[in-house]
Design a protein that fits this description.
single chain; 316 residues; alpha/beta; TIM Barrel; 7-stranded parallel beta sheet; two-stranded antiparallel sheet; 10 helices; 34% helix; metal-binding; S-adenosyl-L-methionine; ELP3
């Protein structure tokens, strides 16, 4: 039995079948790398960005979409699909570029919705309006805005060279939700200088915002990053697996049951992981977490809005 509100269960309730998010690389940039804010990026950021990296190999969005569709269609012909503009900051740049990108993604064959990854400081009112309007007349069922909040603490955001404040994050979430966008906030556990109390304070802060979903990531050390240099110098130590599971067991009960947990662990790209080794093993971590929650009789929301029993709809 599920003990948190999974994205898979959310999709099954809304679509009646499996839904797969297809990661797309639109060749977007980042103000924290192109010199507008910094050329270094966040301390944990791989220069290749998150996601598939297929755009950097010259594949168009349509070509990427077809490649992923072939893989998933073979496994499940009834699967439905959302386009996930994942790599770097997809709302960075001109309004016209964003509008064209949204039109292109919405027109992909069989696309039922969009998820757009970006930073809180790359959202003007005009760009938020464009995102909110992207579904009109296209048949898209939903539009998610995925925002890297990372931490509620300005001292941490400065320490990791994030380039924006927690107030900026709050403003972006509030204004996006006010336009009807489904906002998924990303938080990171094990950031440099943070302990358990800091992370749980960020979880409580995020739960107070008008979010529809959350992603929780364990910090891992990617090759070629400032964090890798700190790690090799002995100035940063990533969380052990048991430490991260304990953090999740403390965090999930505080998170209201309505929030969809899009992810509970990081997913390093092949060849980029320096440490910790356990971060490369995704399935065992979730199994270990479920057993820990079972043993402690905990579930998402048990110390928030669902104290009596685990919500049955967590199972989809």
């Amino acid at each position: 039995m599920a003990r948190w509100h999974t994205l898979a269960a959310y999709f099954r309730r809304n679509y009646g079948t499996r839904v797969q998010k297809i990661p797309l690389d639109a060749g977007s940039a980042c103000p924290n790398r192109d010199g507008l804010l910094s050329t270094q990026g966040c301390v944990f950021c791989n220069a290749l960005g998150s996601g598939s990296g297929l755009g950097a190999r010259g594949l168009s969005l349509a070509e990427q979409w077809r490649a992923w569709r072939r893989r998933y269609d073979a496994a499940d012909p009834d699967c439905r699909f959302l386009a996930y503009l994942q790599s770097f900051s997809n709302t960075y740049g001109s309004l016209e570029r964003l509008q064209a990108l949204l039109r292109e993604a919405a027109a992909l064959p069989g696309c039922r919705g969009l998820a757009v990854g970006t930073r809180p400081d790359c959202l003007s009112p005009e760009k938020l309006d464009a995102l909110a309007l992207a579904g009109r007349g296209t048949g898209l069922a939903e539009i998610w805005l995925e925002l890297g909040l990372q931490s509620a603490h300005d001292a941490t955001l400065a320490r990791i060279n994030r380039g924006h404040t927690a107030a900026c994050s709050e403003k972006a979430v509030t204004e996006a939700a006010g336009r009807g966008l489904l906002v998924c906030g990303h938080l990171m556990a094990g950031l440099p200088g943070e302990g358990e109390a800091d992370f749980l304070a960020s979880v409580d802060w995020a739960a107070s915002l008008p979010l529809h979903g959350l992603k929780l990531h364990n910090v891992y050390v990617p090759k070629g990053t400032e964090l890798a240099r700190q790690y090799r110098a002995g100035n940063y130590l990533p969380l052990e697996r048991d430490e991260y599971v304990d953090l999740l067991c403390a965090a999930l009960p505080r998170i209201p049951s309505r929030l969809v947990m899009h992810r509970l662990q990081s997913d390093p790209a092949p060849g980029e992981l320096v440490a910790p080794a356990w971060a490369a093993r995704k399935r065992p971590l979730l199994g270990y977490l479920l057993r820990a929650l079972d043993a402690r009789d905990l579930w998402q929301g048990c110390r928030a809005d669902a104290p009596e029993e685990r919500p049955g709809w967590y199972d989809g």
